[in-house]
Amino acid sequence: MFENLSDRLGGVFDRLTKQGALSEDDVKTALREVRVALLEADVSLPVARDFVKAVQDKATGAAVTKSVTPGQQVVKIVNDELVHVLGGDDAEPGKLKIDSPPAPILMVGLQGSGKTTTTAKLAKRLKDRDGKRVLMASLDTNRPAAMEQLQLLGTQIGVDTLPIVKGETPVQIAKRAKQQATLGGYDVYMLDTAGRLHIDEELIAQAAEVRDVANPRETLLVVDGLTGQDAVNVATEFDDKIGVTGVVLTRMDGDGRGGAALSMRAVTGKPIKFVGLGEKMDALETFEPERIAGRILG
Ligand code: GDP
To answer: Ligand 1 pocket: which of 117, 197, 284 to mutate (most atoms <8 Å of CB)?
Structure first.
């Protein structure tokens, strides 16, 4: 997930921790390399700049403790700052507000981002881990076979889907899903909205209309983690126009540069709740800042 960034930072810190005493210049040089490594990982410029500045301020002010070398101390400060940037101050990563059944979860995102796959993965997780009864409904009236795709996934994972009725509008489907979820005693119902290749007015208008009808407890934006800063721009726009409560970054199993994961929280203010790590139905992980920081620093 973060191989390149991890290699680069590993090299910088190896050199730093091997030194006995550190001059201010040593730290400056190391942090310059950190900044370049972050930018190469497609972290947005302001985030990379703030990151380095925060580390520098803390490193300068830090009292030297005897148990660690100055180099180790800098690495610890970098680790803490990474956890912070990744959203480590949020309580309980991956937790969803799905009390008061039936709780609606609205899934939004661009076409091809992995939205339908993620809807099914998350439904499976809620069923298997939390023992929730989940109903899934596809509101995608644009893409041929989108509804059948979700239905097929539902059968695979043993999660119910709303019966397909052709000719309904997304709002009508959302209303029917709510009714069925209430009558059927479901804990959660998930609304998989239509995606587009780009954010356009129609997409936003449709998602907003569904949001107003469904009054979702969570609105999760699914974005392709391989697209780096673009993923962050997409999230900013969706949040401005529809309001999102959390982000799912997909394709984090690919050789993306990881920048989206690092910039997302700082730029959008929204937590990454889960990461997609493959096409299989169990390839969804809670986004845990501490663990991710650990992976980045190796
Ligand atoms: P949608 O148009 O946003 O609903 O996208 P889909 O859910 O149909 O996914 C598009 C493709 O991406 C499918 O082939 C999925 O199997 C694949 N995909 C989704 N999530 C991931 C992921 O986390 N990793 C990988 N490698 N592929 C994924």
So the answer is: 117
